[in-house]
Specification:
- This protein has helices at about 1-20, 25-35, 40-45, 95-105, 135-145, 160-170, 195-205, 215-225, 235-245, 245-260, 285-295, 315, 320-335, and strands at about 50-55, 55-65, 85, 115, 155-160, 175-180, 275-280, 300-305.
- It is an alpha/beta fold.
- It has a single domain, classed as Rossmann fold, CATH 3.40.50.1820.
- Strands 1-2-4-3-5-6-7-8 form an eight-stranded mixed sheet, with helices on both faces.
- The chain is globular.
Length: about 350
């Protein structure tokens, strides 16, 4: 009885504490990220959105379109197959701001570029679709593409989104003209292959309320091992915002616990042209253990290693990343036209 009373007291105290640590709403997180100087290129293009049927319910679709030519209609006839950039976890469409800056300077070779917010993340509500899984995210991407007003895309996924995208390409290859995986998840990890914060998310029973104890220095401490140079304050503040939305944090924990190489045996079935774009210093998915295995398993895939980048090459060398993505899309389109 005494233990039960003590447990109730602990739960009551936790409830009061969580009430005082409300986290951020999606709207607050969106405003915080839009105000960061790093995101100016994306903000200029504004947000678009709609809802559509997904798994028997309604799903929100939020995206940014960077048109090939200002003023062109979405999905204009005769346009090149567009790019679809899919952020990792935690994340949002703002994760592609450095690439958007590069597009603003040099264009995207006549292609529309779409930056999509994945269901369950900071700017795209999960609705009734929790717990989040890699397969739910993949299914959502496939369902969302027609609602962008396009039929097929060259899809690019970073980290967890790499697995979202390759699963989607397996399930609906007709929607994808090519696939680019940037430091992607997908294979079962060895026991010593997990980062400390990932171990906590997978094993601690209080992990789903970890958003309540976040601050800038905790976020900076988790990010810094992935970069050689000091992490910019804007990036820290962005990751703090996307991680401070309670439902989005819970989705991240769900996905960390779902990352088990469930469909790794199917990776050799990927049939769309595939580029593997990897940071040579990635400590989450090392080149030799992960990237080269993808290269062996996906027939005809091409591996490009950026030696000075870690897990976030699109932040470290966005010009090179965009160039490789566009070269890959051009080659895939040329091959399809032959």
């Amino acid at each position: 009885m005494r233990a039960a009373v003590l447990s109730l007291s602990v739960l009551a105290a936790a409830s009061v504490w969580l009430g005082a640590c409300a986290g951020m709403s999606r709207e607050e997180a969106g405003r915080a990220m839009a105000a960061l100087p790093k995101n100016a290129s994306i903000v200029r293009h504004g947000n678009s959105g709609s809802t559509f049927e997904y798994e028997g319910g309604r799903a929100d679709l939020r995206y940014v379109r960077i048109p090939a030519t200002p003023g062109t209609a979405q999905g204009a006839a005769g346009a090149k197959t567009p790019l679809l950039l899919v952020h990792g976890t935690p994340g949002s469409s703002f994760d592609w701001s450095s690439v958007a800056d590069e597009i603003a300077r040099n264009g995207a070779r006549g292609r529309d570029v779409y930056l999509i917010d994945v269901i369950g993340h900071a700017l795209a509500p999960a609705g009734a679709h929790r717990p989040m899984t890699f397969q739910k995210a993949a299914d959502w991407i496939v369902a969302a593409i027609p609602h962008l007003g396009v039929g097929r895309v060259h899809v690019v996924g970073h980290s967890y989104a790499g697995e979202f995208c390759w699963r989607a390409a397996l399930d609906a290859p007709q929607r994808f003209a090519s696939l680019t995986l940037i430091d992607s998840a997908g294979h079962a990890r060895p026991a010593d292959g997990w980062l400390p914060e990932e171990v906590k998310m997978r094993e601690m029973w209080l992990a789903p309320i970890g958003w309540a104890v976040l601050d800038r220095e905790k976020v900076r401490g988790a990010l810094q091992p992935h970069f050689d140079a000091p992490v910019h304050d804007d990036l820290v503040d962005e990751f703090l915002a996307v991680s401070s939305v309670p439902d989005a944090w819970k989705s991240m924990v769900d996905l960390a616990r779902d990352e088990n190489g469930t469909r790794e045996a199917e990776i050799p079935r990927i049939a769309v042209p595939t580029l593997l774009l990897w940071g040579g210093r990635d400590i989450a998915y090392p080149v030799d253990r992960v990237a080269r295995r993808f290269e062996r398993e996906i027939a005809g895939s091409r591996l490009v290693v950026l030696p000075d980048a870690g897990h976030y090459p699109h932040h470290v060398d966005p010009a090179r990343v965009l160039r490789e993505i566009l070269d890959h899309a051009d080659r895939a389109d040329a091959a399809a036209a032959r």
